[in-house]
Amino acid sequence: GAGVSQSPRYKVAKRGQDVALRCDPISGHVSLFWYQQALGQGPEFLTYFQNEAQLDKSGLPSDRFFAERPEGSVSTLKIQRTQQEDSAVYLCASRKTSGYDEQFFGPGTRLTVL
Amino acid sequence: GNSVTQMEGPVTLSEEAFLTINCTYTATGYPSLFWYVQYPGEGLQLLLKATKADDKGSNKGFEATYRKETTSFHLEKGSVQVSDSAVYFCALKTSGDKIIFGKGTRLHILP
Predict the structure, then answer these.
(1) Of B3, B99, B87, the residue nearest A35 (C-alpha)
(2) Are A75 and A92 contacting, i.e. CB atoms less than 8 angstroms apart?
């Protein structure tokens, strides 16, 4: 069965450009998470959706970061006016329900800001 | 706040050696503890988990025991293989939904 997919897998942006990263969760999964993984670091939580509701956005580093999941399935993470410190791998994970179910991770999108 | 500290890598071992990767945590309440693995070119995968004190998680020959008294969750394997070469992340989750990860430990196994 299909796992979590993310696109594009690699993105190079010039500083100041806007980017949009897409996540397709496992079909039927209610919860969706975004994480940011800087080089040599562990993933850090950005935001969490349950269906279309964004329940926690405490990890978004600035108001340049915006995430949406309008129909409770596909999600998009948008970064406006990218800066070099935004360079990282952006991971998406989905979970079947709430609580202690396992989070399944996608392969990530590697963003490089020049 | 909640955090995870794990031993820095890289760790290099010969095939069939004994592996320990140390992990300690700081958390309020009673967290669930996890080890995730990231193989080259692949996404993060859950390796094992433990949800309460003294629980032992195990998978693929790896084990870790939830030690509340020492706030530790060390990863062990009795005989490593070349195919175990990967980055290993210790992590915790409290009553919220987000997972807090350590920085990761890169493991190299030499044939």
Answers:
(1) B99
(2) yes
Are the Cβ atoms of A107 and B42 closer than 8 angstroms? yes
Q: Which of A42, A15, A16, A3 is nearest to B6 (CA)?
A: A42
Q: Which candidate from B97, B102, B103 shows the least CB-CB separation from A48? A: B97
Chain B residues lying within 8 Å of A42, measured CB to CB: 4, 89, 91, 101-104
Asked if the Cβ–Cβ distance from A55 to B97 is below 8 Å, we say: yes
Asked whether the beta carbons of residue A41 and residue B32 sit closer than 8 angstroms, the reply is no
Below-70 pLDDT ranges, chain A = 1, 98-100
Residue of B42, B97, B103 with shortest CB distance to A56: B97
CA B3 to chain centre: 14
3-class SS at A50?
strand
Of B43, B51, B89, the CB nearest to A106: B43
Residue B52 has pLDDT above 60, yes or no: yes
The model's pLDDT over B73-109, given as tens digits with 9 standing for 90+, comes to: 999 999 999 999 999 999 999 877 889 999 999 999 9
Nearest alpha-carbon partner for A59 in B88, B101, B28: B101
Whole-angstrom Cα Rg for chain B: 13
- H/E stretch holding B59 reads strand B56-59
